[in-house]
Specification:
The complex is a heterodimer of chains A (about 140) and B (about 60). Chain A is an all-alpha fold and about 140 residues long. Chain A is built from five helices and no strands. Chain A has two domains: about 70 residues; about 60 residues, no CATH class. In chain A, helix 4 crosses helix 5. Chain A starts with 5 loop residues before the first helix and ends with a helix. Chain B is mainly alpha-helical. Chain B has a single domain, classed as 434 Repressor (Amino-terminal Domain), CATH 1.10.260. Chain B is built from five helices and two strands, in the order βαααααβ. The longest helix of chain B has 10 residues. The radius of gyration of chain B is 11 Å and the shape is globular. Chain B starts with a strand and ends with a strand. The chains are: A mainly alpha (about 140), B mainly alpha (about 60). At the A-B interface, helix 1, helix 4 and helix 5 of A face helix 2 and helix 3 of B.
Chain lengths: ~140, ~60
């Protein structure tokens, strides 16, 4: 017996169709842009071209938001609680490391923020779901 | 909040997945409601009440006295 209802399976399928195309575009584009910039050098268009790497991620974010919108009420609550939890943890981590930076620790590039936020978020989802499942 | 959802579901010989399918929610939602870990929204409570042809207050029993 499947643990998922028809609605959940359909929701996941739609999500994957909306998530992967822009993600693939991003993964390709993120390698192409530095090549282009290396070849044609700096100009006024260097900034928009660099920022264009974010555009596919906007569609990735849209897919995620639409996925949560289609979820049932409990899962919406889980995702919302996880978002708040990860935001708080992330804020504390950033502030903590910020204090360390004042003491001479090396600065972390802003680019790496995603690698901190995403695992914390998914860990929060896992813990909150487990907590709800426990009797 | 306590509720009689498990009892009502078992009377109909439905699995949690069956009930979830009928109500358009996840199996986990049914499980957490049955275990009293989650109180459903008013629209979902109305759906449950309609499905089992019972009043909401007969299915969900408030802890407050």
């Amino acid at each position: 017996m499947s643990n998922f209802t028809y609605k959940e399976i359909k929701n996941k399928k739609i999500y994957l169709w909306e998530f992967w195309p822009p993600m693939i575009v991003y993964m390709v584009w993120v390698f192409i842009v530095p090549e282009i910039l290396d070849k044609i050098g700096d100009g006024w268009w260097a900034v928009p071209l660099t920022l264009s790497q974010i555009i596919p991620l906007v569609f990735v974010a849209r897919a995620m938001i639409r996925f949560v919108d289609r979820c049932d009420e409990l899962m919406k609550l889980v995702y919302m609680k996880s978002a708040v939890t990860s935001l708080i943890i992330f804020t504390f981590v950033c502030m903590g490391y910020g204090f360390l930076e004042f003491r001479g620790y090396p600065s972390i590039p802003l680019f790496l923020i995603g690698t901190i936020v995403i695992p914390v978020y998914f860990m929060s989802v896992f813990i909150i779901r487990k907590k709800l499942d426990g009797k | 909040m306590e509720n009689k959802l498990r009892e009502l579901r078992k009377n109909k010989n439905w699995s949690q997945a069956d009930l979830a399918e009928v109500l358009g929610v996840s199996r986990q939602t049914i499980n957490t409601i049955e275990n009293g870990k989650y109180d459903p929204s008013l629209p979902l409570a109305f759906k449950i009440s309609k499905l089992f042809s019972q009043k909401i207050e007969d299915i969900f029993i408030s802890d407050e006295k």
